[in-house]
Amino acid sequence: MISVILCDDHALIRRGIRDTLADAADIQVVGEAGDYAELRGLLHSLRTPAAGRPAGCDVLVLDINLPGRSGLDVMHALKDEGSTLKVLVVSMYPEDQYAIRALRAGAYGYVNKGGDPQLIVQAVRTVAQGRKYVTPEIAQMLVESLTTPTHENAHDKLSDRELQTLVMIASGKRLSDIAEELTLSPKTVSVYRARVLEKLGLQNNAELTVYAIRNGLVGE
């Protein structure tokens, strides 16, 4: 039996994934968390066996866009802690935005929330075996990165949090909204915004939005 933890700040999304996985006889959801703090507490509790529940966990199904620490931050923290938990990222962001970053951060796979729900079942089974799960789109991206001359986009130089801030600003969110959603102070978000502007050589939010659209980071 593959034991799975779901970590997503939207209860409805967790329910949808849980219901999808419930149809698989070899997969059991043993816990849910809405952010990193809840996840840490859950992982601690799972170290002790309980009736009808196995100790530990095989796969963590993780969202990128979490309040406080992002999913990428969570993966870095788990790696620093020496965790052997296999992470499957399930995100609303298209593969070309975060898939490669997620894999570099230690994820075993990346699935878009807008895809076929059954892909999540297949992905969980794959990563539980210690194998990488990538969609054909990601595989194509990886092949192109190996067979074409290296060309680094300006936004590739951004940190994970800076890229997240860029995408949220370009999606029309105010700094106060971003601060609330990420559980950060408005001042901290302003610092991230300033770093993004500096690294990309831009002047204001309008230019950030145009840059994000032209580079496929957000839809038009």
Automatic annotation (TrEMBL):
User: At what positions is 4-aspartylphosphate found?
Assistant: 63
User: Per the UniProt record, which residue ranges are transmembrane?
Assistant: none
Matching entries from InterPro entries are given as: CheY-like_superfamily, NreC/VraR/RcsB-like_REC, Sig_transdc_resp-reg_C-effctor, Sig_transdc_resp-reg_receiver, Tscrpt_reg_LuxR_C, WalR-like
Which GO BP terms, alphabetically?
A: phosphorelay signal transduction system; regulation of DNA-templated transcription
SUPFAM superfamilies per the record?
Answer: C-terminal effector domain of the bipartite response regulators, CheY-like
Question: Which keywords are on file for this protein?
Answer: DNA-binding, Phosphoprotein, Transcription, Transcription regulation, Two-component regulatory system
Q: Which segments constitute the HTH luxR-type domain?
A: 151-216
Response regulatory domain sequence ranges: 3-128
- GO MF term list: DNA binding
- SMART domains referenced in this protein's UniProt entry, alphabetically: HTH_LUXR, REC
Pfam families, sorted: GerE, Response_reg
The name on file for this protein is DNA-binding response regulator
- Annotated source species: Pseudaquabacterium pictum
What is the organism lineage in this UniProt record?
Bacteria, Pseudomonadati, Pseudomonadota, Betaproteobacteria, Burkholderiales
